Amino acid sequence: MSKPASPAVIRNLLLEALPRTNRERLLAHGEHVPLALGEVLCEPGDRMRHVFFPTAGFISLITRVDAARALEVGRIGDEGVLGLRLMLDSKVAPLLAVVQGPGTAWRIKEAQFCRELAHSLPLRRAFNRHLDVRIHQLALTAVCAHFHPSPARPRPCRCASSSAIPGGSSRFSIDAACWPRPARVTRLIGRPTPVSSVSPARVLV
Questions:
Q1: What CATH number does residue 48 fall under?
Q2: Is residue 90 part of a domain?
Q3: CA distances from 32 to 29, 35, 200, 204 (A)
Q4: What is the spatial distance between Cα 60 and Cα 75, in angstroms, rounded to a whole number?
Q5: Which helix (H) or strand (E) holds 191?
Q6: Does 142 map to a domain?
Q7: Is pLDDT of 137 > 80?
Q8: Predicted pLDDT at 106
Q9: How far is CA 153 from the centre of its chain?
Q10: Partner of 196 at 20 to 30 A CA spacing, among 17, 156, 167, 176?
Q11: How many domains does the chain have?
Q12: Is residue 2 part of a domain?
């Protein structure tokens, strides 16, 4: 088992929000790896063999419309994790995940990640809150897309500028949630954090 990760190299807001003991146990199974531009992390239909917590750069989530067309439907940066579907006991990737912003990430094998989840209630609670935020953010995105069709919103709007999960401790604020400028999550899992660019379209991957 490796040494606990130095706080200087964690640099992922979701990991930083975990209780220290749980974070160190989780990262003891991980390795800090480079993310190369264009690197494919998983293909649709693949079994998810790793989870990735970006610490720099970002991962694009892409759905293929047909053999010639594809659409980016989300991004994962240093606020989140690729592999959130494992919380739902779903181990098959629904989308193409490819590095569009080169950087680094903590990589943990799927089996070890699931084992830690099974044995740690604080870890499950933290990731459930993160999942709750993402589901709520999807709803805000749908509202924004409905009431602000693209031709009518050449500039970012602030219709979803502040949100809280009812009945829970997870809070976040979104600056400029509407397309074309990416949203900026400034609060996540109940604690203030540095801003981190994310896409306005979020998916559970």
A1: 2.60.120.10
A2: yes
A3: 10, 10, 27, 23
A4: 5
A5: strand 191-198
A6: yes
A7: no
A8: 97
A9: 26
A10: 167
A11: 1
A12: no
* Tokens standing for residue 170: 């997870």
- Tell me if 138 is assigned to some domain: yes
**pLDDT tens profile 6-61:** 555 688 999 998 989 999 999 999 999 999 999 999 999 999 999 999 999 999 99
CA–CA separation, 174 and 156 (whole Å): 12
Q: How far apart, in whole angstroms, are the C-alpha atoms of residue 52 and residue 199?
A: 17
Buried b (16+ CB within 10 A) or exposed e, 177-200: bbbeebbbbbbbbbeebeebebbb
**CA 92, CA 176: separation in Å to the nearest integer?**
32
What is the spatial distance between Cα 19 and Cα 133, in angstroms, rounded to a whole number?
18
- The mean per-residue pLDDT over the stretch 104-115 comes to 96
Please tell me the predicted confidence (pLDDT) of residue 62: 92
| Rounded Cα gap, residues 68 and 50, in angstroms | 28
Tens digits of residue pLDDT in 64-80:
888 888 888 888 999 99
For the chain, how big is the Rg over CA atoms in Å?
17
Residue type, 62: I
Please give the residue range of the domain that contains residue 46.
7-198
Q: Which neighbouring-strand residues pair with 10?
A: none
Among candidates 146, 153, 140, which has minimal Cα distance to 200?
A: 140
Residues 105 and 55: their CA atoms lie apart, in Å, by 5
Q: How many CB atoms lie within 10 A of CB 1?
A: 6
CA dihedral 108, 112, 115, 119 (to 10 degrees): -70
Beta-bridge partner residues of 76? 59
